[in-house]
Every structure is written in C-alpha cells, then in structure tokens.
Amino acid sequence: VGISVATYNKASNNSSYWFGSGTLYSAPLDTKEPTKLDFASMAAGEYKIGEAVTIAVVFDEIVADLNGATISGTNLNTMTYAGGVDSNVLYFTGTVKNNSTETTILNGINLSGTVLDMVN
C-alpha cells in the first residue's frame, strides 16, 4: 500500500518547494456506539451469600467506564467498577446476595451508566 502526497506551488516557474519529511496519522471511521455482547462470570460454580464475585461485561469494541457505569442483578449486592480501560471488557467486583450458581448470577444482570467509545 502506498500513499502519495502532492503539493501545488502557484509562485513563479523558477521557485521551488521542498518537503523533507512528515508523519501521517490515520484513525478508523467509527459511526456506531459500542454494543454489549454478553456478561461473563470470572469463575464457574456455586457462590455463597457474601462471597466475592467478578463479572466481565464484553463489548464489540474498545470501551472505558465513564460517569460511573455499574451493573446490578437479582443475586448481586452493589458491584463496583474494577478495570478494563482500553479493552473490549469492563470488570466489576462485588458480593453475592443469595446462594447462587454462575447461571443464576448472570441471569437478570443490568448495565447502567455511560460507557465511553474509545474508538472515536
């Protein structure tokens, strides 16, 4: 793949223009917001009341937490954002409200707040 750079010099015929070097930057044209693909528990199995749990929220592009994005669920206590900036996964940690399995924890989870599109 090659890139051509052209210039126009409207000065007299005997003038010259010299270009030594430059840097070319490009960015993808992203016209859509990130889409949540799924929630995932970081460990399979059974959870007891009060046990710590980490939930991953997977998106279709690179995102960041902005303005306190949170997740909540029927079997979860308050979940706190734990990381994942500059990736397509945000991590939240918290504790289990009721004796649960991975499946019952992941059912009924809601994402709220603002997620920043890092591609734009």
Structure commentary:
There is one protein chain. The protein is mainly β. It has one helix at residues 102-106; strands spanning 36-41, 46-47, 52-72, 80-83, 87-95, 100-101, 110-117. Strands 1, 3, 4, 5 and 7 form a five-stranded antiparallel beta sheet that branches. The longest helix is centred in the C-terminal third of the chain and has 5 residues, at 102-106. The model has no long low-confidence stretch (mean pLDDT 83).
Structural class: mainly beta
Strand content: 35-45%
- Name the shape in a single word: rod-shaped
Major β-sheet profile: 5 strands, antiparallel
Find the count of extended strands (DSSP E, 2+ residues). 7
How far apart lie the N and C ends? 24 Å
Helical proportion, percent range: under 10%
Order of helices and strands: EEEEEEHE
- How many helical stretches? 1
Uncertain segments of ≥5 residues (pLDDT<50)?
A: none
Give the overall average pLDDT: 83
Using only CA atoms, what is the Rg?
Answer: 24 Å
